[in-house]
Specification:
The chain is mainly beta and 236 residues long. Helices cover 0% and strands 62% of the residues.
């Protein structure tokens, strides 16, 4: 997104901040708060609630956040998350909020392979920063639809490996203002996500992942690591 003030100064914000705007949005950026086997985490059969936190890194920006999720192993699930994004080139940060949900479908009788259709909404406020000539304010809204598939591979009685892959189609609307002048832009793109979760004692998930935006101008892959813990009685 480019914001052009009414001077010879041009403020250019890297477009890849759109790709990191929605921490945990659908299959775009993994967070152990959001999913279950289809997204590389412990299933909700290990506990109907999950608390999670994650960090994401991409060219020019980094983000961290966390949230809560609730669901059942072969039914609906949903999550709410908050995040904070920092940028390398400007002394400013952004705050984001994400709602995501899906439906888990067992693909075999052993229920070790799971597919999930997914949907999510995210809003990011900022970054807002002073240019010396005035303040630039910006925000992003994003909606995504997609799906993800994963499988459980037991490595020991207390350790499972859950590789997964997914993709989502996302619609982002970015807006900015400078000294009363405003500008907005829309971007539609596909996010491909790959990763593998390490699940300890069926409840603790450590999940490295990579998210690859396709069709988003100037965007780079996002690398992440997230953690989640299931608790509570399994939902009936």
């Amino acid at each position: 997104m480019n914001v052009r003030p009414p001077t010879h100064t041009r403020i250019t914000m890297r477009p890849n901040f759109l790709g990191i705007a929605a921490l945990g949005l659908v299959a775009g950026i993994a967070n152990t708060t959001s999913g279950q086997v289809c997204q590389g985490t412990a299933p909700f059969s290990a506990g109907s609630a999950r608390v999670g936190a994650g960090m994401q890194f991409t060219d020019g920006a980094k983000a961290y956040g966390g949230g809560l999720a609730f669901g059942s192993s072969n039914s609906l699930f949903g999550s709410a998350e908050v995040s904070r994004t920092e940028f390398d080139d400007i002394d400013a940060s952004a705050t984001g909020f994400t709602l995501a949900g899906g439906y888990s479908i067992a693909m075999n009788t052993q229920r070790t392979v799971q597919f999930c259709p997914l949907v999510g909404f995210a809003y990011q406020s900022g970054p807002n920063f002073d240019t010396g000539f005035g303040t630039v304010s910006s925000s992003v809204r994003a909606i995504g639809f997609g799906g993800s598939i994963g499988t459980t591979m037991p490595l020991s009685p207390t350790l499972d490996l859950i590789p997964f892959g997914g993709a989502s189609y996302e619609f982002d609307h970015a807006s900015g203002s400078f000294n009363g002048l405003s500008q907005s832009s829309d971007q539609n793109y596909t996010n491909v996500q790959l990763g593998a979760g390490f699940v300890l004692n069926h409840v603790l998930t450590i999940l490295p992942s990579i998210s690859i935006p396709i069709g988003l101008d100037g965007a780079k892959p996002t690398y992440g690591i997230s953690f989640g813990y299931n608790f509570g009685a399994p939902a009936k």
